[in-house]
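Retry 2 of 3 after timeout on previous attempt. Resubmitting structure tokens to design endpoint.
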């Protein structure tokens, strides 16, 4: 409910010019939610799917990996390196996740089980690949207007940064795999996975993918 109110408040707060601009550009009315979900745990490595020369000199707001810090939202996507002990990126990513359990700087907080952490990290990578392989091509062929980008990158006023902050706050007390504020079961078996799977796919709609792709283009180029 709180996030619904947050979305509604920022929708009201948007200037009429930005509201019209984003609507005319085909951006959904819940763009701050869809974009915040796509970017809240973005890394430099993830950004390189869209811009090969991406670095920590970016302006993508993300949840602070160190949740103990008072600054819950970083103004950039960090460079998160995996090791090289294993032969494949997948195993090195799993090694990174499992080796960070119990570390307050793993970006998720204390409430996620091992399998939930693995599911979250690979879900985000899957979503980034989905954005790149679907909406990204259309966005790069028909780039958004400067006015659209100005409205989307005004994260202090359009609700995107606030929605990323919502995720950070809720990591302190649970496992919010969407920004819908719905209860989620612990991931223990096939039945609970069916709920997780449904929630994880919530932001794979064409509208959500276009929102994220357009924002990333505006923020990177």
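Retry 2 succeeded. Sequence:
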């Amino acid at each position: 409910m709180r996030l619904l109110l947050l979305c509604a408040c920022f929708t009201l707060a948007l200037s009429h010019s930005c509201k019209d601009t984003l609507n005319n550009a085909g951006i959904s009315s819940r763009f701050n939610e869809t974009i915040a979900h796509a970017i809240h745990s973005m890394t430099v490595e993830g950004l390189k799917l869209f811009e090969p020369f991406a670095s920590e000199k970016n302006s993508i707001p993300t949840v602070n990996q160190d949740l103990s810090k008072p600054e819950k939202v970083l103004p950039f996507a960090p460079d998160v390196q995996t090791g090289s002990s294993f032969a494949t990126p997948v195993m090195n990513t799993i090694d990174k996740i499992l080796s960070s359990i119990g570390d307050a700087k793993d970006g998720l907080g204390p409430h996620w089980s091992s399998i939930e952490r693995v599911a979250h990290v690979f879900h985000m990578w899957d979503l980034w690949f989905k954005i790149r392989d679907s909406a990204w091509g259309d966005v790069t062929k028909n780039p958004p207007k400067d006015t659209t980008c100005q409205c989307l990158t005004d994260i202090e006023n359009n609700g995107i940064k606030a929605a990323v902050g919502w995720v950070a706050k809720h990591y302190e007390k649970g496992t919010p795999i969407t920004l819908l504020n719905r209860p989620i079961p612990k991931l223990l078996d096939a039945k609970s996975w069916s709920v997780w799977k449904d929630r994880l796919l919530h932001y794979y709609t064409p509208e959500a993918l276009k929102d994220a792709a357009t924002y990333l283009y505006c923020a990177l180029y």
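Attempt log closed. The chain is about 55% helix and 0% strand.
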